[in-house]
Amino acid sequence: MEFLGKVYDGSEHEIGNGYHLCKIVAADIESTRVIPLYCEAYAYDAVKSENTELLHAIGIVESHIDAKGIHAIDRGGIGE
Fold it and tell me: What is the pTM of this model?
C-alpha cells in the first residue's frame, strides 16, 4: 500500500505498519454520548506535517458547526 509507514500499535504494544488516524468527536455535556464528526487515515510521509492535518480537520469541522466548541488535542499538536 502506498506510503505505508511505521505506527505504534497500542493493542499489541509494538511498532507495526499502518497509517495515522485523525479523528474528531463531540461530547454532549448533557449525557455520556460521544458524537463522531470527522475521521481520516493519512500517511505521515505523504503530508506536510501532522499539525497541518490537524488544522485541516478542525477547519472542516468548524465550517459545519459555526466555529463553536472547545478544541482539545490529545496526541500530536506539538509545534513543528
Answer: 0.73
Note the helical H segments in 1-80.
50-65
Q: What is the pLDDT of residues 37-67, one digit of tens each?
A: 999 999 888 888 888 888 899 999 999 988 7
Q: Which of 49, 34, 44, 36 is nearest to 80 (CA)?
A: 49
* Upper half-sphere CA count for residue 33 (Cβ side, 13 Å): 7
Three cell numbers, residue 77: 499538536
Rounded Cα gap, residues 21 and 63, in angstroms:
21
Supply the DSSP symbol for 9.
E
Alpha carbon distance 68, 5 (integer Å): 34
Which of the 8 DSSP states describes residue 66? T
